[in-house]
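> tool_call: predict_assembly(chains=two)
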Amino acid sequence: IPLFRTSRCVCIKISDQPVNLKSLEKLEVIPASQSCPQVEIIATMKKNGEKRCLNTKSKAVKNILKSISKER
Amino acid sequence: IPLFRTSRCVCIKISDQPVNLKSLEKLEVIPASQSCPQVEIIATMKKNGEKRCLNTKSKAVKNILKSISKER
């Protein structure tokens, strides 16, 4: 029996590149849970379908979330 | 050639049931685009994997987005 639960986070590397809402095909938000202690935000880019883990603490992400809740 | 582009939104019916972050497995946000004029938010429930389209204008959704950007 393992003493420590293995982390099952989706994101290994977090991108700090700026992203903007218009360049995103979709955004997946996975709340913190028993399997991963932190919120994860995965952006799928329109251009090439590339998935990128975003820094939940970054200003860009905060702005994206804000603009989503503002848009109609 | 069709005169009007057919709407390709993911959500047909929007749920107004309250949801809370802890009951969600994940949240998908699809920004407005040429194929669908409004932002769509699809929640996957932890309990049964059920997918539910959320009302982007609802207070519950605004609160969820807010709590995500606040959490660590």
